[in-house]
Each structure stands twice: as structure tokens, then as C-alpha cells.
Q: What sequence folds into this?
């Protein structure tokens, strides 16, 4: 695993760390995920949870821990959670610091399945998030049926947003709606001060991206807060 911080801009502190799968020699997420198929998806999903919690405990991640999950790997949420509970106890990592992110790039035909997963996670006290919001198959339709604790705006919306008036209007509209219904917004993939200025002016407070910190292999990494 590599870990990349999500920062709270107003308080100038770390809000969370996202666990990002890597190879044992630091190989990219793509090289690992490309080997996931129908036969090993469930085992892969469970192994990632365990490893993320184990390493987060070892390197003393100071805040929340975001773990991505593959919705098509979760058949019975209660069964999947059992592994999470066991890992949390074994490695002494508090359950109330876990955030489960739905990877939106994986197609799921049954929204009721996703909603059941989210509701089960929330019942156990986990926070829930939709990753890469706007890039996949769920989007606003899912948001109308279930409201997670957080959404992460897809980086394609964020890239060069200062020079794209349509992207600015769309992002502002999503951020305003989320604020009204009590969902926190994370802008991911922020790489430049120009992008950050636009997003801060929109009232977005949580950020993830190379401007603040790159993913660090089996480490919490270092962060910086640029001047605006």
C-alpha cells in the first residue's frame, strides 16, 4: 500500500489518508488491478482491507483511513465486514476512523446492492464515500437514493478548472447541492495553485493531490500547504 493524505484546508491539517494498492516493489495500482478478475476479486478486496489496516496501524496514520472497495466483490456486506472487524481488533485500529469508498469506475447494475452495502457500513459506524464522482456509472442517480458522508470529485473535473468555465459551473453546482444535503466534498487530483484558488473560492475545504503530497509507499508521507 501507498498512502496519500486528504487535507483540511481551513484547519491546515490532515483529514484522512487514502490507502492505495501497490505491488510489493512499489508497482503501480494499474499493474495490480489489471490482474483482478471474477475468480479472485473477493479475496483481493478482503486482502486489501486487511493490509491497509495493518500498515495504517504500523505507521501510525494520525486521522481517518480511506479504503476503496470493489462493489462487485461484496456479495454479503456482513461477511465482508467480519474481516474488517477482525483486522481492526488484531492491529488495534479504531473502527470509527474507517472510511469506505465506492470505486465508481466499476459498473454496477443494481443500485439497491450498493445502497445495502452503504447502509450496512454506516450501521457499524463506518463513514462512506463515493470515489471519482462523475466518472462512472452511478453519479446523481445514486446520490438521489442514498447520501454518503463524502463524495470525491473526479480529477478530470478538477484538471485546469481555472481555465474551464463549464467545469467550474458544474463543480460549483455539485458542491452547493452536497452542502445543502450535508455531504462533505473532496476535490481530488489538485496539482496547481491556480486550481486550488478556484476551488477554495467555491467553499470546498477538503483536498487531495500532488500539490499537497504524493502517495508515499508504506509511509504517511509529508504534506505542504501552498500559499494562495
A:
Amino acid at each position: 500500500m501507498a498512502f496519500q493524505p486528504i487535507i483540511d484546508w481551513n484547519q491546515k491539517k490532515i483529514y484522512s489518508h487514502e490507502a492505495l494498492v501497490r505491488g510489493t516493489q512499489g508497482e503501480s495500482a494499474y499493474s495490480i488491478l489489471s490482474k483482478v478478475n471474477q475468480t479472485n476479486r473477493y479475496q483481493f478486496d478482503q486482502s486489501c482491507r486487511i493490509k491497509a489496516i495493518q500498515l495504517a496501524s504500523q505507521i501510525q496514520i494520525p486521522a481517518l483511513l480511506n479504503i476503496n472497495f470493489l462493489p462487485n466483490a461484496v456479495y454479503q456486506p456482513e461477511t465482508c465486514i467480519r474481516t474488517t472487524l477482525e483486522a481492526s481488533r488484531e492491529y488495534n485500529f479504531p473502527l470509527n476512523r474507517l472510511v469506505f469508498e465506492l470505486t465508481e469506475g466499476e459498473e454496477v447494475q443494481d443500485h439497491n446492492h450498493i445502497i445495502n452495502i452503504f447502509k450496512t457500513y454506516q450501521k457499524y459506524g463506518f463513514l462512506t464515500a463515493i470515489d471519482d464522482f462523475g466518472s462512472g456509472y452511478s453519479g446523481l442517480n445514486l446520490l438521489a437514493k442514498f447520501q454518503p458522508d463524502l463524495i470525491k470529485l473526479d480529477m478530470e473535473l478538477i484538471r485546469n478548472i481555472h481555465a474551464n468555465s463549464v467545469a467550474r459551473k458544474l463543480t460549483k453546482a455539485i458542491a452547493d447541492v452536497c452542502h445543502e444535503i450535508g455531504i462533505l466534498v473532496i476535490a481530488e487530483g489538485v496539482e496547481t495553485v491556480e486550481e486550488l484558488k478556484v476551488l477554495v473560492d467555491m467553499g470546498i475545504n477538503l483536498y487531495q493531490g500532488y500539490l499537497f503530497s504524493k502517495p508515499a509507499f508504506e509511509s504517511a508521507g509529508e504534506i505542504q500547504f501552498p500559499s494562495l
The CA atoms of residues 189 and 209 lie 4 Å apart. Strands lie at 2-8, 13-20, 64-69, 98-103, 127-133, 150-153, 184-188, 206-208, 216-217.
